[in-house]
Amino acid sequence: MSLSFEGRVVLVTGAGGGLGREYALAFAERGASVIVNDLGADTKGGGKSSAAADKVVEEIRAKGGKAVANYDSVEDGEKLIQTALDAFGRIDVVVNNAGILRDRSFARTSDLDWDLIQRVHLRGSFLVTRAAWNHMKNQKFGRIIMTASAAGIYGNFGQANYSAAKLGLLGLANTLAIEGHKYNIHCNTIAPVAGSRLTETVMPPDLVASLKPEYVAPLVLWLCHEQCQENGGLFEVGAGWIGKLRWERTQGYIVRQKNQSMKPESIRDHWEKICDFTDATKPANIQESLQSMVSVLSQVESQGDVGVNPAAAAASAGLGSGIDPTKAVGQKLPPTTFSFNHTQCILYALGVGMSTKDPDHLRFLYEGHPDFSCLPTFGVIPSQAAMMDGGLSSVPGLNIDFTQVLHGEQYLELYKPLPTSVNTYSGNELVCYNQFSVFVVGAGGFGGKRSSEKAKPPVRPPKRSPDAVVIDSTTRDQAALYRLSGDWNPLHIDPSFAAMGGFKAPILHGLCSFGFAARHVLKQFADNDPSRFKAIKVRFVKPVMPGQSLQTEMWKEGNRVHIQCKVKETDAVVLAGAYVDLHGASGASPENLSQGGGLQSELVFAEIGRRIKDVGSELVKKVNAVFGWEITKDGKKAAQWTIDLKSGSGSLHKGPYGGKADVTMTVSDEDFMEVVQGKLNPQKAFFSGKLKVRGNIMLSQKLEVILKDYAKL
């Protein structure tokens, strides 16, 4: 399906020619209303003319598009945005493209050469974007493009002024991406290579002619579309090629020792290690950047002479840290046995949020159920017990401070469905395989690589809307309940212990969130059949506080379901790079897969269900009706929901409903989301045939009470 900008208002600065003209024409061709801004100055910033902007507006209008001209300088940012508001009533997209050149070698650069470049490129982009910012915040949508340059990224002779301004734009864009994220304002930066008035001074004529602006414009359109979730990216683009850039950093080397001064000679002696990009890290934000500094402070204070090699580790042993790498490296945990019965299986299921309120959960909670089963993720419990119950403490050289322990990643693979009771562990029969990635802050000095080839890597989810979303509330006592399965770390129950670890309150176990997400996948895509579970991998990103709601987003691709888990209240990602691998279902049909997930509307009904629990009695008084929903996908019925706001405190039912609905609505999953998000008027949907209504049609007028006031999407 082609990308449309119908209804969007786009401002392009410096749009009288070159790249800006191409952007303006491309946006207009796809339905956008365009403000064509151009001062009409020459490449050095001199002169002024309305001809360039007027000509582009005429081109757009001649093709049936909508456009107006603006002739103000970008330093008058408010005037540019006011033109958009006066002509079209809103502003959705700002493409900061205007620029000039005043190339000089650094020694010959005057104050005017410097100031003019900063005013047009950096200050101009700031002023235009600031003028649009609050309008974008209020409408909860905005897309911003900053135009950097290879000169800013790499430097270029004779362009010190230009290079500084262009890299300054990248810093501005990165901060706007952070501040605008919660308002659905995305800001990205491009470093284009295209033939224009500005590049013809630094490129051969034949190259200028070959690098056409139309090879850049499609990237700008994609980054500005509502479907694109890219934010804070930096892209080089030209000649039909696009590449994304990111920072890379060496592992570095600690060159100071506790209670000793840091000397340049030590830096000289370790310069090769400092500059060695083997196993380089790729910090993505300031928190990740500072993490290593905090770790260094801890290592130096706790171990004294700390380095990344075994010799330095040996020198640091026995200085009070409790960690002696020379003794610990190469050790193996002793063999252990683990016995469990149906009680532990049920307790674990309760710990990861299963409830008798959901009939589907009974097979994991009632030992008398004909299909009584153990949740697949219970497989982490025996291996965790092996580590926690004396296993790690038996390893020489390890005396771990559990306030400094961070669970980084987890991989679990089952070789067969877990039994509901095991009395002894048979070394000849592998039941499951676990990988734990655990970080202990301050416990460095082990040497070797920071990653293992044996470790299962995280995998990013597809860049599209999730196929299914499930929202589940944890309880205030979730951590207190989960710890009964064997993770006795006081970090999850004792406020004073949590404070020592830097947390305001005890946090939920990462493996508890892990269990929530896994069972969401099992229900959505495997009909709660444990035998279909093969493996799961997650990266733990941020902690969850007991009582918060977990939102699991799922993308199904073959037998792999990619997952990302967020805290619903804060939108913070807590599980990333995660996936569940399933065994194929025998006799699975497209209809069954559709019923099991893949509907965006699942998110809406889940939220409606939550609101009914909170304010159901109030809704019953306002609405007093039973609504039936039939959601279709690809022309076939994919899901059925009933919202009962007539009896008791209200209720939500999925699937067949025993009672009779007062009004039943049939609509596709896609059109339902358009209605909920206010993009499709329900009356227009009805008259166009997209929304079919049976029963008391007048009751449909009360839908706004349910969808708008209480869905809160």
- Report strand %: 15-25%
* Beginning-to-end CA distance, first to last residue: 25 Å
Structural class: alpha/beta
Contiguous helical run count: 24
The largest β sheet comes out as: 8 strands, mixed
Helicity, as a percent range: 25-40%
What fold name goes in the CATH topology slot of the largest domain?
A: Rossmann fold
Low-confidence segments: 303-320, 587-597, 709-713
CATH class of the largest domain, anyone? Alpha Beta
The CATH H-level superfamily of the largest domain is NAD(P)-binding Rossmann-like Domain
The total strand number stands at 20
Query: What is the arithmetic mean of pLDDT?
Result: 84
If you compute it from the alpha carbons, what radius of gyration comes out, rounded to the nearest whole angstrom?
A: 30 Å
CATH architectural grouping of the largest domain: 3-Layer(aba) Sandwich
Structurally, how many domains make up the residues?
A: 4
In the sheet with the most strands, the strands line up as 3-2-1-4-5-6-7-8
- Basic shape: flat
* Quaternary structure classification: single chain
Protein name: Peroxisomal multifunctional enzyme type 2
Pathway: Lipid metabolism; fatty acid beta-oxidation
Pfam family, one: MFE-2_hydrat-2_N
Family: Belongs to the short-chain dehydrogenases/reductases (SDR) family.
Please name the defining characteristics of this protein.
713 residues; alpha/beta; Rossmann fold; 4 domains; 8-stranded mixed sheet; 7-stranded antiparallel sheet; 24 helices; 19% strand; disordered C terminus; oxidoreductase; SCP2_sterol-bd_dom; Peroxisomal multifunctional enzyme type 2; 3-hydroxyacyl-CoA dehydratase activity
